[in-house]
Design brief:
Blueprint lengths: L3 E3 L1 H30 L8 H25 L1 E3 L15 E6 L5 E7 L10 E3 L3 H6 L7 E6 L2 E11 L16
Parallel strand pairs: 1-2, 4-5
Antiparallel strand pairs: 3-4, 3-7, 6-7
Helix pairs in contact: 1-2
Length: about 170
């Protein structure tokens, strides 16, 4: 199985999500299954079958979170070099066609949030940037076509180099 690279904050959020599912949502769903079971004939009890499906999805979610947590490798943000694009670095790129700059911070899929410029290292953009150096030109295939970018700067974790004025629809 692949390791999941997370920051301490990402690990904390994942652990909180697991606790929420195990100790709040799951007991609520189990209660609904039990209540629906009491409504009579299970063969024709749509409420019971819906609750059982929800229970199955909740158990799958909990299993997935536990599996992810069992594979976590904490990343020491202070030890990340910026000689090339790596997980947790922020990359400042220029779209060679539109002449606009964008900033992306590469993170694990579990921490990705494109609305704030955090993209997964497994996304098309993440895969296209990993391992590249400042000054490199990259062509990345995204759902809307190809983009041609120049990597302007690679910043260490915690240093985003200012706001991302452009959207992150290329992720």
């Amino acid at each position: 199985m692949d390791k999941t690279y997370l920051t301490r904050d990402g690990l904390r959020k994942l652990e909180e999500e697991l606790r929420l599912w195990k100790y709040t949502r799951l007991p609520e769903i189990i209660k609904r299954v039990s209540e629906a079971r009491g409504h009579g004939d299970l063969a024709e009890n749509a409420e019971f079958h819906a609750a059982r499906e929800e229970l199955s999805r909740a158990n799958s979610k909990i299993f997935h979170l536990q599996q992810t947590l069992s594979q976590v490798h904490l990343v020491d943000e202070a030890s990340i070099d910026t000689d090339q694009v790596r997980i947790l670095t922020t990359v400042r790129v220029r779209d060679d066609k539109q002449r606009r700059e964008r900033r992306y911070t590469l993170v694990a899929a579990e921490e990705a949030d494109p609305s704030v410029g955090k993209i997964s290292i497994h996304s098309p953009v993440g895969r296209g940037l990993i391992g590249k150096k400042a000054g490199d030109k990259v062509t990345i295939e995204i759902p809307s076509g190809k983009v041609n970018w120049t990597i302007l700067e690679i910043l260490p974790p915690g240093n985003t180099g200012g706001s991302n004025d452009d959207d992150t629809s290329a992720t």
